[in-house]
Amino acid sequence: MGNFTVTIRKKARYVDPGLCNACAECAKVCPVVTPDEYQMGLSSRRAIYIPFPQAVPSSYVLDMEHCLGNNPVACGKCAEACEKKAISFDDRDQIVTREVGTVVVAIGAEVYDPTEMDDYGYTRFENVITSMEFERLICAGGPTEGHFVRPSDQRQPKRIGFVQCVGSRNPRMGRPWCSNICCMNTVKDTLLLADHYPDTRSVVFYQDIRAFGKSFEDMFQRSKEAGVRYVRGLPGEIHEDPRTHHLIVTVENTTSGKLERHELDMVVLSVGLQPPADLRKISSLLTLSKTSDGFFMEAHPKLRPVDAPTRGVYFAGMCESPKDIKDSVCQAGAAASRAGALLNAGKVTIEAITSRIDEAACTSCGVCVRVCPFGAIQWTKGTPAVVVEAMCAGCGSCAAQCKPGAITMRHFTDEQIVAQVRATLAQRPEEKVFVFACNWCSYAGADMAGISRMQYPASNRVVRTMCSARVSEEMVLEAFRCGAPVVLVSGCHYADCHYINANRQTVKRVQSMWAKLEKAGVRPERLQLEWISAAEGQKFAKVMRQLDELRRTVTPEEIERSRKAFKPKVRRAAAEAATAAPVPGTAT
Amino acid sequence: MTATLERFRCMACGHEFQEVVQEDEDKERTCPRCRSNSIRKLKKAAEPAE
Ligand SMILES: Cc1cc2nc3c(=O)[nH]c(=O)nc-3n(C[C@H](O)[C@H](O)[C@H](O)COP(=O)(O)OP(=O)(O)OC[C@H]3O[C@@H](n4cnc5c(N)ncnc54)[C@H](O)[C@@H]3O)c2cc1C
Ligand SMILES: [Zn+2]
Predict the structure, then answer these.
(1) Chain mean pLDDT for chain A
(2) Which of A111, A118, A214, A470 shows the smallest number of beta carbons within 10 Å?
(3) Which of A139, A185, A210 to mutate to test the pocket of ligand 1 (most atoms within 8 A of CB)?
């Protein structure tokens, strides 16, 4: 855990920030003109520039990609103009290495590029801009020094439309999530316009206004009081009057049920947020995973919201999910505290249930390394794998997948689980539905069904494992050998898996077992898979009713077949433990 | 990113269905008919005969 070696590329600045006093003489003589990224390309900059007004350090930097060249020096005017002699064309990228104990991931998010949404004409009509471009146009430090003008004629627009949820809450586009900040950003923008230009008329096209945060509702009401019109409904299309460059927006007002036509001077697309481009790279560096929306997944959605599943790694800001500045700052503070707590702990307590690899039995295949969601197993080709116990969370995916049986889960061994299977099915197995339930969700779901006094057949017998991924092929086959008519493997829903994504291994295993059962002439339906959360007592009860019905269809001949179809695999570890547990097949 | 059309069978109710699967998607599968998670991925439809 911790103990990260970080390699950092420190990019060449070509300007010594210690000497530069930001006098701007260099930029005055630079002949290169290129679009200013910070101003969303709405104005230009020189090749030597300060990236944005609040940049730290407050020093010029030379953009070598656009500079006329330093090898040989083709222009050199900036260096001549610099009194402090701060500019050096010989500067090179440096590689810096640091040993660190914790890592905070705060790579933010990206805004959606509406180019593909041709219906709104973002690329065709000059006066259709994004909320990001609006931000620059209204800003005193922006390309127009805060004079809000529209691109086509540099005149101040009087009628402005905002279209919400552009690239958000749209399952058809594969972007079902809410980007969180856009509603309030638009409310803020309408207030800015009402304040700076009282003669403007703003209209907001929306599907829902989400003003849930502290004092947000108040801001929303102020916007309405300022005369901003809120129209429930997203425009289907935007057209331009080619003569005036005004925009025609047709929208179905879903409150009134009427089709409305709005002529506007300018339209702002309130663009959503998406995971940052580097997320995948950072994920693989730190063995992190993402939620279905593509943002980073936290260790636990309620109880460990700033911890990454990899111990010693924390999240701050939008890379975890879209959020405003206040929430980003809260999370950053929490991440720093969590990191500080770990750094100052001195000692860390490891899980009681961890994985141990028997070096002698390990065949160095590397399968365990691939299935470990925590990156807790170290292995180089040709040598036995080793578990870093401080990082192991004890899911048991590795043990379930280890063909030679070289992996033991401390205090929760295969032999213990198999013994439970045998004991449970020792008498009248044909009357039972055998259930493997994960500790965190499914077992708690079964509890919930009981606490809520839900009715379901009493035929089920539940054996608990920490994670559904702990349930090995052998355990399932053992249940069939012992005469189980039906076996259920149950675990947490994808988003709730307590071991990052270990339950994806469960899916793979059950898939391959269905094929195996079929091949052996055993009805594959006799093995079932369900995700049952701690709150889903209802679902547990429903599944138990269905499985009991299924059980009644399994004939004695079928049970006899599955008893004999699968030869027990004599594992080295199992053989050793044979003195403690009865031999497979004798439990009839 | 590539997407493929896959065939699935619900092992609880027997319903067969097709779904577009993104290459790197990480999605829980549920039977559109009975809501079961016992969803078996079937082999691709046979390639057209040569
Ligand atoms: C149009 C718009 C308007 C907004 N208006 C408001 C508002 O009025 N009020 C409000 O509270 N919030 C507003 N927000 C939200 C606000 O921008 C975010 O809450 C805030 O920026 C989140 O901070 P962050 O540090 O998580 O991410 P970011 O601000 O995105 O910072 C992430 C940083 O990480 C860097 N980075 C990315 N990848 C790497 C890498 N691999 N290595 C090193 N660095 C990397 C990026 O370059 C970036 O500088 C607005 C957002 C948008 C898009
Ligand atoms: Zn079904």
Answers:
(1) 93
(2) A214
(3) A185
Same domain, A283 and A265: no
Residue whose structure tokens are 């195996």: A516
Quick check: A14 and A88 in contact, CB under 8 A?
yes
Residue A380 burial (C-beta neighbours within 10 Å; 0-12, 13-18, 19+): exposed
Tokens of residue A550, six digits? 């299924």
Q: Which of these three, A322, A345, A368, is where a domain ends?
A: A345
CATH code, domain with A49: 3.30.70
Q: How confident is the model at residue A580 (pLDDT cuts 50, 70, 90)?
A: low
Give the residue from A106, A72, A25, A91 showing the smallest Cα distance to A336: A106
The pLDDT of residue A323: 97
Q: Which residues of chain A does B40 touch, with a Cβ-Cβ cutoff of 8 Å? A: 511, 514, 524
To the nearest whole Å, the CA of B18 is away from the closest chain A CA by 17
Specify the CATH number for the domain of residue A190: 3.50.50.60
Q: Which of A25-29, A285-289, A360-364 is predicted with the least confidence, judged by mean pLDDT?
A: A285-289
Nearest CA residue ID for atom 4, ligand 1: A185
Which residues make Cβ contacts (< 8 Å) with residue A336, sequence separation at least 6?
A: A104, A316
Q: What is the pLDDT of residues A278-310, one digit of tens each?
A: 998 998 888 788 887 889 988 877 778 899 978
User: Which residues have CB under 8 Å from A116's CB, separation 6+?
Assistant: none
Shortest distance between the Cα of B13 and any Cα of chain A, in A, equals: 9
Chain A residue closest in CA terms to B12 = A525
CB A33 within 8 A of CB A20: no
Q: Tokens standing for A143?
A: 């390309």
Mean pLDDT (whole number) for A13-39: 95
Nearest-CA distance A540 → chain B (Å): 11
Residues A283 and A270 in one domain: no
In a domain, A588, yes or no: no
A334 shares a domain with A365 = no
As a three-state string, the secondary structure of chain B is CCEEEEEEEECCCCCEEEEEEECCCCCCCCCCCCCCCCEEECCCCCCCCC
* Residue A496 in contact with partner chain B when CB distance is under 8 A: no
The ipTM assigned to this model is 0.91
Highest mean pLDDT, choosing among A35-44, A256-265, A372-381, A578-587 = A256-265
Report residues near ion ligand 2: CB below 5 Å. Answer: B 10, 12-13, 15, 31, 33-34, 36
Give the distance from CA A363 to its chain's centroid. Answer: 34
Contact by Cβ (8 Å): A361, A406: yes
Q: Give the span between the Cα atoms of A322 and A306, in whole angstroms.
A: 14
Q: Note whether B11 contacts A529, CB cutoff 8 Å.
A: yes
CATH number, domain at A399? 3.30.70.20
Structural domain count of chain A: 5
The Cβ of residue B43 has, within 10 Å, a number of other Cβ atoms equal to 8
